[in-house]
Amino acid sequence: MASLRIAARALAILARRNGALAEEVLAEEFPWLTWLPDTERHECVRELLSHLIAGADTGELLPFGRALTSWRSTAVIWSDPRLAGELQGPFPGDGPEVARPKGDS
Fold this sequence. Notes:
Blueprint: H1 2-17, H2 19-29, H3 38-58, H4 62-79, H5 81-87
Helix pairs in contact: 1-2, 1-3, 3-4
């Protein structure tokens, strides 16, 4: 786990000093990053590195895996302009009105 911690921290230092280079490095490993808009790509890199560093420090990599899956799914949605447009709204109305549940008391 020490090796992972060192690698994660080194990548985080690189990202702080040269964000574009860090994105380039991660894009080689995760080519789907190119489908994300610039602002989301920056956020994705920051979030993945944060989870990776925390996981390397604690040995708990599940949050990193979840974030990776979530960002990959987001990138796939952005790759389809029609779907990305639909999910950005606008959305008609607030939906149907739902009756408030009755309490047992």
